Structure formats: C-alpha cells, structure tokens
Amino acid sequence: MKNIKAFTLVELLTVIVIIGVLVSILMPTLGAARNLAKDTRTMALIRVLDGGLEQFNSNERIGGQYPPSSDANATVAAGNTIKPDGAQLLVMAVAGYDLQGTPGFGASFNDYEYNQPRSGPYCDIQSVVKVLNTLPGYSTCAAAPVVVDPFGMPILYYRADLSQAVANNRYNIADNADITTNHASFTDATTFRAYITDPTASSLAGVPIPYKKDSYLLWSAGVDRIYGYKSVGGGNIQSDDNASFPSPGK
C-alpha cells in the first residue's frame, strides 16, 4: 500500500498564520477602496444636485434664484410647522417634499402646498432620500426628507446671503444647525467660516472670502461622519469631507 503524505500540524499552522497575515494586510486596502468608491459616488451625487439647483435657479416662475436654506418658522407641505434646515429645503427645491415636483417657496413658505403648480422634479433622488429623524443620531429632529450620502449622512445645503458683506456672514452656520450639532468639528460662526474660507481669494482681497460667495455650498461629512476637520497624530488637521468647494486635506 502506498503511503499518502499529509501535512503536519506545524505546516498547517504555518499556512493559517500566513493567510492571517495576508488578510490583515489586505483588509485596510479593501476598506480604503470601498471608501474611495463611496467618495466617488458622493461627488457624483453632489454634481446631480448642482444641476437641480441650477435648473431651480433658472425657473422664473418659482423665483429665479437659488432656493432658501433657512426659515425661522415654516409651514411646509401637509401643514406641519417645523424649522427646516438647509438639507431639507434642498429636497423640497430640487424634487418636492413628496418627490413629485416643487411649487417653489412663498415669502413665508406658506405657499408650499400640494395644490400649487409644480416644476420638476429636477433630480431623480428617490433612492437617496431618507427621513431625517430615522437616521442614527437624529431621532429628535424633524420628520422631513433629506438627501443621504453613501456614508449615511445628510448632505448639507447653504445658500449665500447676498445682503451680507462678502467678507462677513454670507453663509450662516445656523442654516443646518439641527444636523451639525454633535456631528461637526465647528461649533461657532468663527470656526465655521474658517473652514469655508477661500485662501486664494482672501489673500487677494485682504479679507476672508468664502468659497462660492455668490451662490451656495453642498457638503457631505465623508467616512468619519463628521462635518469639518478631524485631528490626527501630531496635532495635524485633515478632512475627509466631500463638498462643492475644495475640502482641506483631501
């Protein structure tokens, strides 16, 4: 009878150890590849929203300007009184509260009713719209639709306030405060403005100038699910955010 040579226990353990080492090497690479793919999808989504906002802006019937990103006390859609954030108003503008088209916004938002003529929808975002208070960490927020990035976070929308001096308060941290509270590295207007300041334009003008000073900003938190900077070893600051403006550290 032939002897069948089998692996020894030592050889089997060696193979297992080698496989474990290879897996430990490959896992971070695979994770980074998945996050890069999500970054790419996020930027594609932001470009889709850019297109929708431009179409809204060009429609004279509903105002001929970019949609608002705040209102102190708005009556929206089915009569629910809420304080909408920019992220929610973004959905209402490019697709409508029910994703069937937008009637635009009245002076006090009270004209946002289903019985008004509709325009659009300007974006097909049904697959990426979620109800804000169903997302992790947002249970106390409004039951209103928001666009969610591939990392599961709302995409923020800020419209420039053209009545403000360009170097002052064109963009208001309060426009998405319900969403960014406890989910952002900036905590006040000063740190918020530092993040959105265009260093090239500022150095030429001699005063802080924000990115896209005459239009709007779209902003995704990225893989760390934090809007803004994060600290890394040695006190360095970087960001993994995706946005319609340059994100420091990317």
Oligomeric organization of the protein chains: single chain
Basic shape: elongated
**Rg, alpha carbons:** 23 Å
Tally of individual domains: 1
Task: Indicate the mean pLDDT.
Answer: 83
Let me know the largest β-sheet: 3 strands, antiparallel
Q: What structural class is derived from the secondary structure elements? A: alpha+beta
Report strand order across the widest sheet.
5-6-9
- Beta content comes to 5-15%
Protein architecture, described:
With 250 residues, the protein is an alpha+beta fold. It has one domain (9-243). Helix content is 31%, strand content 11%. It contains 5 helices and 9 strands, in the order H-E-E-H-E-E-E-H-H-H-E-E-E-E. It has helices spanning 9-58, 86-94, 177-180, 189-196, 199-205; strands at 74-76, 80-82, 129-131, 145-147, 156-159, 216-220, 230-231, 237-238, 242-243. The strands form 4 sheets. It has a 3-stranded antiparallel β-sheet with strand order 5-6-9. It has a two-stranded antiparallel sheet with strand order 1-2. The protein has a two-stranded antiparallel ribbon with strand order 3-4. Mean pLDDT is 83; it is low at 73-82.
